Amino acid sequence: MRRRSGTEQLRLIKGGEQGPREKSGGISRSPVNVLLLVIALFLLAQVLLGWIWGSFNRSAGRVVTAMEGSVDISIITGGILTFEEELIFAPQSGFLRYLVEQGERVPAGKELAVITSLPQEEPDKPEGGQDVGDYMQRFRDWLVDDPGVADPFSVDILFPYNHESEVVSHRAGLVSLQVDGWEVFGPNTSYVYLDDEEFDQKKTGLQSLSYGERVTRFAPILRIMDNYQWYYSTVISPYPGKLIAEENQVQLLFSFAPEQPVQGHKVEVNETEEGDIEITWQINQAAGDFYNHRWCTAEIIYDSMEGVFIPKQTILEQDGIKGVFTVERGRVNFREVTLLEEEDDLVLVEGLNPYERIIARPGRVKEGQRFMW
């Protein structure tokens, strides 16, 4: 092998600046990046335009939702309230002093009143002797045999001896100090069917006695009623009377308690020669001061109508057909509807499904118009 002589030297050959460039902080302007930027700006513009257009559309035609609902079918009529009740009569002639109050519940055996042969002192008056003039008047009444004051041929009328009789309840119930003459009707006898004019013609005066008032023997002084069950009797025209008569139970709203519905259970139905329907319902719920009433009006709810509720202003008419504008797949469409019933500012209609979107201001949009929301 040969060995080279001398020292070999390495030389550096300078070339162009072809090394890697330092990364700059700017965005690369390659075609791909430019394209992505354009697409992003386009999508942003679409969103902004859609929002602006949607806001315009909402202001032009606000959307409401159809809600499922129903309307009660009812009729208003007049009738008579009756009770299982008992009249209490005066056991003797004399002066009445009540020991109970109107509307008070009493048990059987409760002392209700006292009747005395001598006048009663008012509770707020001091006790004192009987006026001689009263005895003279009682003597004159006895001479002419006035049954409104004392029993005939009673020698006690001449003397200041006071006969006193207690009036005791034979049953538990609610006390009424008002007697009107209709107590003979009810579940223990028969129900009475009258219209308002007939009732006005046949009604007697309402008797309401007060403390110390003079009564005759066997005169009615109060009544005790069963207030757990009461009855309402009315006369209804053939339509809807026959439909109502088919229902075993109806809902009743009475004029003295219009916000307190009660259930009426049918107990009697008759048809008159004219075709009118006489119906009586039994009621087992309290409603207001029902025990103070005899004749009253009532709303009888006997059926209901199903549909959907929409605002009344959403209804429009095209070519004689009533309908609404709905939004379906982003477009405005006309839908025909059947109007069933109105309730305040709402309309119950048929022809729509619950939760459909309805244009609230149909006059501001057109059929076929597209919504971007």
Rg, Cα atoms, Å: 46 Å
Low-confidence stretches: 1-7, 125-132
The major sheet is characterized as: 6 strands, antiparallel, barrel
Sheet with most strands: strand arrangement: 2-11-14-13-12-15
Give a short summary of the structure:
The chain is α+β, with helices and mostly antiparallel strands. It has helices at residues 31-60, 132-143, 196-202, 238-245, and strands spanning 63-65, 67-89, 94-98, 105-106, 111-116, 164-168, 173-176, 178-179, 207-208, 214-215, 220-236, 249-254, 257-271, 277-283, 295-311, 316-318, 321-328, 331-336, 338-343, 346-350, 357-359. Strands 2-11-14-13-12-15 form a 6-stranded antiparallel beta barrel.
Characterization of the model:
Helices cover 15% and strands 39% of the residues. The chain has 373 residues and is an alpha+beta fold. The strands form five sheets. It has a six-stranded antiparallel β-barrel with strand order 2-11-14-13-12-15. Strands 6-5-3-10 form a four-stranded antiparallel beta sheet, with no helix packed on it. A hairpin with a 2-residue loop joins β17 and β18 (331-336). It is elongated and about 130 Å long. Residues 1-7 and 125-132 have low confidence and may be disordered.
Give a quick set of tags describing it.
alpha+beta
Write the layout of secondary structure elements.
Layout lengths: L30 H30 L2 E3 L1 E23 L4 E5 L6 E2 L4 E6 L15 H12 L20 E5 L4 E4 L1 E2 L16 H7 L4 E2 L5 E2 L4 E17 L1 H8 L3 E6 L2 E15 L5 E7 L11 E17 L4 E3 L2 E8 L2 E6 L1 E6 L2 E5 L6 E3 L14
Antiparallel strand pairs: 1-21, 2-11, 2-15, 3-5, 3-10, 4-7, 5-6, 7-11, 8-9, 11-14, 12-13, 12-15, 13-14, 15-20, 16-17, 17-18, 19-20
